[in-house]
Design a protein that fits this description.
single chain, alpha+beta, 5-stranded antiparallel beta sheet, 5 strands
């Protein structure tokens, strides 16, 4: 029975040797797997970093494009600002000129209104109250700060234009004869003559420029006077009128 022991011992040694060789093999496989996993993790990190880098690069490019656009916009805005500053400078010059002109025009308008007021008082008593009221309104207008100088100038010229028209046409208007209180029809022949006739036609008179008073006409029923009234009322065609006015003394 003794020879069996070496065989058993040999078999045990063989089994032990095989077990010892298997352990390093398993360790190498595990290490390789760990390396592969580590490599995969590293690749994932690299991929993420690459993706992040690409994202940041695109953001940088987008930001650069936006900055470039903003720069062009700012340049355009600056050009607009420069142009507006030039226009403001021109407007300021115009404003200064306007203020200077206003300082000159306002006294001129005031003198024109004063002259018109004196003219109304010295003229024949033609629509006197209406003309006085117009002059008074002009004085109020010149003192109104809310009314522009152009409007003031226009209104003053308009008043002068009305006064000019009084001297060019023929007209009839109703009114009250000063000093008597009677209602009469006035006949205006430009500024050449101013006559009146009572509503019943029984009395007529004229304004004496020399004595500056009303004087009666001897013949209130004169046909030429009646014709003048019809022409002034546009009831008859215009024609050469011979009015029954006395000849002024030399």
């Amino acid at each position: 029975m003794t020879p069996l022991r070496p065989l058993i011992l040999a078999a045990a040694l063989v089994v032990g040797a095989a077990a010892g060789a298997e352990e390093p093999l398993k360790t190498g496989i595990d290490l390789q797997a760990e390396l592969q996993r580590a490599g995969a993790r590293s690749q994932q990190k690299v991929d993420k970093l690459t993706e992040r880098t690409s994202t940041l690069l695109e953001q940088y490019r987008q930001t650069h494009r936006e900055l470039d656009g903003l720069k062009r916009y700012n340049d355009q805005v600056q050009r607009m600002v420069d142009t507006q500053e030039q226009e403001l400078g021109g407007l300021q010059s115009q404003l200064d000129e306007f203020v200077h002109t206003q300082r000159e025009v306002m006294p001129l308008l005031a003198r024109m209104v004063d002259t018109l007021a004196r003219f109304v008082e010295l003229d024949i008593p033609l629509l006197t109250e209406e003309r006085r009221q117009r002059v008074e309104q002009l004085g109020t207008l010149l003192d109104d700060p809310e009314t522009g100088i152009a409007e003031k100038y226009r209104r003053v010229l308009e008043a002068y234009q009305i006064e000019t028209e009084y001297g060019r046409d023929l007209g009839v208007y109703a009114g009250t004869l000063a000093g008597s209180g009677r209602n009469v029809d006035f006949l205006r022949v430009g500024r050449v003559a101013l006559l009146y006739r009572t509503l019943d036609g029984n009395e007529a008179g004229y304004w004496d420029r020399t004595e500056r008073r009303w004087k009666p006409l001897s013949d209130a029923g004169d046909l030429t006077l009646a014709e003048a009234y019809r022409v002034a009322r546009k009831q008859s065609a215009p024609e050469l009128l011979v009015l029954p006015l006395p000849v002024p003394s030399p």
